[in-house]
Amino acid sequence: MSPYDYFDMRIAQIHGLNRAGGSNMDIRHEEFMAMADAFLGPDYDKGKLQQVEQLQLELHAHQARLAADFQSRQLDEQAFVDESNRLSAFIAARCEAILGAADFHKLFGAAAADLNSYIDANAFLQAV
Amino acid sequence: MASGMLTGHAVKMVGLPADHTYVTSSAGHIWNCNGRGAGGMAICVGSGNVDQADCLSNPLSHAGISYGITGVCHQMANRILYPAGQTVSRAQRYQWSCFMYGTYGKDPLTGGFYSPAHAPWPELTVCHTHTHP
Using CB atoms, which residue from B82, B89, B92 is nearest to A4? Predict the structure, then answer.
């Protein structure tokens, strides 16, 4: 089974896509562990994974703050996109520092430097 | 209930790190997910209720996702593909969008990840019972 097939299988289990339902769980954590198990293997350093999960929570907290600033018009569209992309690149670089370049690439399918401009300004402007 | 095939597509975008994704159906729908709705390659396919997928795509093929806030095109595509049990996980840079927004996007109020089984997004609740006359 390829890592992608394993990842898909775990995601299907988490979200009940096989119609089997499921129990209460922390979806974010379960999805992260599915991705880590699939692409880094089930025996990967749990300490490093916990540090990356902590950064994920930090990312989400900052994303929420940026969204609130955008909705209250403290940030305009371009500033929101720029700040969001800066945040994404910053967190990606910190995750890469924890995992190392090779394992970061395994987990996320790219180098941190290749995750710049993740949010497309044109798509954002088209959507709002 | 119109059963049919739902296909997820990935398109490389010049100057952007991630593939754009969109969804089509065997009934002729093209849900462009806030971007291009043509080209690229098929990355997943499965059978499902096309009427439910069409319901889930609303409004405007954004599927209830606020682009850049609660998800990107990957989460829009995953919501529309839900009736087929497929995701666009083979899109380039997909894992990073999963890390930021989850498989089905984030709740704008709580920041929690949505899940069909555990925390359904509002449109899914509506579209679960949706049928065309």
Answer: B89
Name the residue among B110, B9, A11 with its Cα closest to residue B122: B110
Structure tokens at B32: 């462009």
Q: Which two tokens stand for residue A91?
A: 């967190």
State the pairing for strand pair B3-11/B20-25: antiparallel
* Assigned domain for B55 exists: yes
The answer to whether B113 contacts chain A (CB < 8 Å) is yes
What is residue B132's predicted lDDT score, i.e. its pLDDT? 46
Which of B90, B93, B115, B128 is the best mutation test for A, with the most CBs of A within 10 A? B115
Contacts of A73 (CB under 8 A, 6+ apart): none
Whether B133 maps to a domain, the answer reads no
Domain around B93: 3-128
Report the first-to-last Cα separation within chain A, whole angstroms. Answer: 41
Instruction: Tell me if the pTM is above 0.90.
Output: yes
Domain count, chain B: 1
Residue B15 pLDDT level (bands cut at 50, 70, 90): confident
- State the pLDDT at residue B133: 36
CA distance B118 to chain A (A): 7
- Identify the burial level of B15 via C-beta atoms within 10 angstroms of its C-beta, where 0-12 means exposed, 13-18 middle and 19 or more buried: exposed
Asked if the C-beta of A65 comes within 8 angstroms of chain B's C-beta atoms, the answer is no
Using CA coordinates, name the residue in chain B closest to A19: B117
Which of A1, A7, A15 is most worth mutating to test chain B (most B CB atoms within 10 A of its CB)? Answer: A15
Helices (H), chain A: 3-15, 27-40, 46-71, 77-99, 101-108, 121-127
d(CA B90, CA B88): 5
